[in-house]
Design goal:
- This protein has 3 domains: 1-36, no CATH class; 40-135 and 325-462, Neurolysin, domain 3; 148-290, Collagenase (Catalytic Domain) (3-Layer(aba) Sandwich).
- The radius of gyration is 22 Å and the shape is globular.
- It starts with 12 loop residues before the first helix and ends with a helix.
- The chain has helices spanning 13-22, 26-36, 43-61, 67-72, 80-112, 124-135, 149-164, 245-263, 284-290, 296-302, 314-324, 328-345, 356-368, 396-407, 409-414, 419-430, 438-446, 453-459, and strands spanning 167-170, 182-188, 191-199, 211-216, 226-230.
- The protein has a 5-stranded mixed β-sheet with strand order 1-2-3-5-4, with helices on one face.
- The longest helix has 33 residues, at 80-112.
- The chain is of the alpha+beta class.
- Helix 14 (396-407) packs across helix 18 (453-459) and helix 16 (419-430) runs antiparallel to helix 17 (438-446).
Amino acid sequence: PGPDGRVRLTTDSSDLGPFMTYAKDTSAREALWRLGRRRGHPRNLDTLASMLQARHALATLLGYPSWAAYAAEDKMVREERVAADFIEELAAAVDGRMRSEYAALLTRKQRDVPAATRVEPWEQAWLEDRVRAEQYRFDSRELRPYFEYTRVKRGVMDLTSSLFGLTYRRVLDAPVWHPDVEVFDVYEGAERRGRFYLDMHPRPGKYTHAAQWDLAVGRAGKSLPEGVLTCNFPRPGARPALLQHSEVRTFLHEFGHLLHHVLGGRVRWAGLSGTRTEVDFVEAPAQVLEEWAWSVEPLQRFARHIDTDAPLPADLISRMRRADSFGKGLWVRQQLFYAAVSLSLHSGAPAAGTDATTASVLALQERYLPFRAISGTYAHLAFTQLDGDYSALYYTYLWSLVIARDLLTPFERHGLMDEETAHRYRDTVLAPGGSKDAADLVRDFLGRGYDFGAYSRWLEGR
């Protein structure tokens, strides 16, 4: 709080997520949600329209009917149609679960507002948290005292060091762009494999989400890979910096990308180094590492209460896992909405007019989500994945999650902390970078092609 007792809130994810989950005042949540859904308006209307026109022109110049068709050709799906079919098939598969979860949210809302007939989008996160607390005896705030930032950082590094046979050595004399940034060299035995930079706390003008960026590309015998992990976690100070469990998962997710970049950086060609795999596979290694945020053994290695030093209780972890099963249907459909937005905006010639995209996006929201579309909101104008490599291919997050769940099956058999399995995963999936087709990497590790079985079990909470 400032001297006047007021707290400044922004639409940055570090403010928006916790506020939408925990703020009791519905009108305050609505106000911040609406502000968040107006980011980029109106300036990005023209930017997006110009980008879509330019992409379509480039694709047709090369003989493709659309940018989506061009972008899909060298991915695992190979064709735009396969991506579209995947979106529709998964949407149908999860429809019943989404509707039952929405009904549960409405029932919970009606306890406070008996005449309510619908749930608004700014009520979703708060109601989900209430349902988890009341039906599953799980309050996500119980976890925060166990996730002090410095201890989590050390825990993630110790965990991955143990799993993959690596050592991280702090580099104090490396040039950095801000005093917050920490630098580490990565060693496998006596061999230096690369370097990474941790830029973990918010500051004015900094990117407001979490990401892993390449600073230098690795090439066998030529150069070592260097990567940057950027997040916006609370900064340690007079008070302990406590993370939400979702932020611990984010840390592991982005660290998974970082390890892929470094360990896959010993190939011949720069264009196939590290994370330069098919875009619809690249999220899988990051999604795999998230699983260590859900299991007793790895969590109890570093998650300890800030006051008592007691490890995170196994019972609380179990309740967290059960509670997490609620909301998966809504989450998957939310991701499918964004996947449909990214694909549809790049399918065929762009509609005329700078605001033509807005009506299309609102219609897709009505189609894929149970919440009403709110006029005067522009989710697509702050949808940063429309830029860069993803463009038409946001379906890749869910496609790669199907693969990630399957890649975890050997760990489920042998244990998440089994070093032999982890080393085989390191050598067969991460180390080749993009030098082999992703389907072959999966087959090398699993001994078979990937399938939907593990994903279906995860979706059902089994």
